[in-house]
């Protein structure tokens, strides 16, 4: 993830703030609770996602809108112009604070660079909750609502171990990128679930993919050149998994290689159903946002302040459960609860 310089605004009139709000990518006053009335006493909640095009964040916005309507709150949303756009998120925070929001829910594009802007918002009494991704340090926000990414990795690691039934594993790990907490947690969880440690001889190739399908395919091609007998593939997410599947299929290796992944998007679950991915750990962006909105409303109305980490759940999804790997749901359940 790129590091962007944090912009600090010394002063801004209400008119300037309103005009600037129109320039923020994806910023829109939704007013779900009272049809945008902005009446006195109405709780105002802001949602800032990494982008407004990724299906994960589209589902998150859907959850926030539903929760705002159910709780009689007014919701405004904003997003970075691209994944990594810290400056756009800083501007969105400033505009929402100027608009008088009671709380902000944010999926940080840059977990470190966003912290000063969040600190400034909190100093003005705004409750700030991170969704999906923590800030660095984690206490940069009042609370975190997110998947337990270590557990997500652990679930698919244990599943892969059980499916191999004692057969010697030749593992490729298709990871995210250096220094990204989500990627490290999932990777380390997979290792624990499989019962191995970093550097184990069974890990024959590791490549970064940035969670991209084409990069996942290229990474898998590189791994197959290095170790043609790979039989287990861990992937950071389902796009990377589908890239790996494409590369394996081209080499005639798709049927005898076990692919496991994390996310639970609809495309990924359909790939589980089709047999391209053996299993995935499904996370729930709609619940993250819905729980976040409820927390802001309770804080504004009852002075109930949320803090710490809140696990929003993760489920192993597979149509081929393995004895000893723990509870799992099938692809029908996954499709009923997927996003995208």
From TrEMBL:
Question: Does the keyword section mention Methyltransferase?
Answer: no
Q: Where is the Periplasmic binding protein domain?
A: 45-301
Record keywords, A-Z: Signal
Q: Which region is the signal sequence?
A: 1-30
Pfam name, any one: Peripla_BP_4
List cellular component terms (GO).
cell envelope
The record ties this protein, via PROSITE patterns, to:
PROKAR_LIPOPROTEIN
Localization per Swiss-Prot or TrEMBL: Cell envelope
Superkingdom assignment: Bacteria
Task: Give one GO molecular function term.
Answer: carbohydrate binding
Query: Major place of localization?
Result: other
Instruction: Decide whether keyword Signal is in the record.
Output: yes
> What does the sequence similarity comment in the record state about its family?
Belongs to the bacterial solute-binding protein 2 family.
Q: What is this protein called?
A: Sugar ABC transporter substrate-binding protein
* Organism this protein belongs to: Streptomyces coryli
């Amino acid at each position: 993830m790129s590091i962007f310089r944090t912009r600090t605004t010394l002063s801004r009139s209400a008119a300037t703030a309103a005009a600037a709000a129109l320039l923020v990518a994806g910023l829109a006053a939704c007013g779900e609770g009272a049809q945008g009335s902005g009446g006195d006493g109405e709780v105002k909640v802001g949602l800032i996602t990494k982008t407004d095009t990724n299906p994960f964040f589209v589902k998150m916005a859907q959850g926030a809108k539903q929760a705002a309507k159910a709780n009689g709150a007014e919701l405004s949303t904003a997003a970075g112009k691209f994944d990594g756009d810290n400056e756009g998120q800083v501007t969105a925070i400033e505009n929402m604070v100027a608009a008088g929001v009671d709380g902000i829910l944010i999926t940080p594009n840059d977990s470190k660079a966003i912290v000063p802007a969040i600190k400034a918002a909190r100093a003005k009494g705004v409750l700030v909750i991170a969704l999906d991704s923590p800030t660095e340090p984690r206490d940069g926000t009042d609370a975190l609502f997110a998947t337990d990414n270590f557990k997500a990795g652990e679930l698919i690691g244990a599943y892969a171990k059980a499916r191999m039934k004692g057969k010697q594993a030749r593992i490729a790990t298709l990871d995210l990128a250096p220094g990204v907490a989500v990627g490290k947690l999932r990777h380390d969880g997979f290792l624990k679930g499989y019962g191995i440690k970093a550097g184990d001889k069974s890990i024959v190739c590791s490549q970064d993919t940035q969670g991209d399908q084409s990069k996942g395919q290229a990474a898998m091609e590189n791994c197959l050149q290095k170790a043609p007998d790979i039989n287990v593939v861990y992937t950071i997410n389902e796009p990377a998994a589908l890239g790996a599947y494409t590369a394996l299929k081209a080499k005639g290796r798709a049927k005898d290689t076990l692919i496991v992944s994390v996310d639970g998007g609809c495309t990924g679950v359909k790939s589980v159903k089709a047999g391209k991915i053996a299993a995935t750990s499904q996370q729930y962006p709609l619940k993250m946002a819905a729980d976040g909105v409820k927390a802001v409303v309770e804080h504004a109305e009852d002075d109930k302040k949320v803090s710490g980490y809140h696990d929003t759940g993760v489920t192993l999804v597979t149509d081929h459960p393995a004895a000893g790997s723990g509870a799992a749901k099938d692809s029908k359940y996954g499709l009923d609860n997927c996003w995208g």
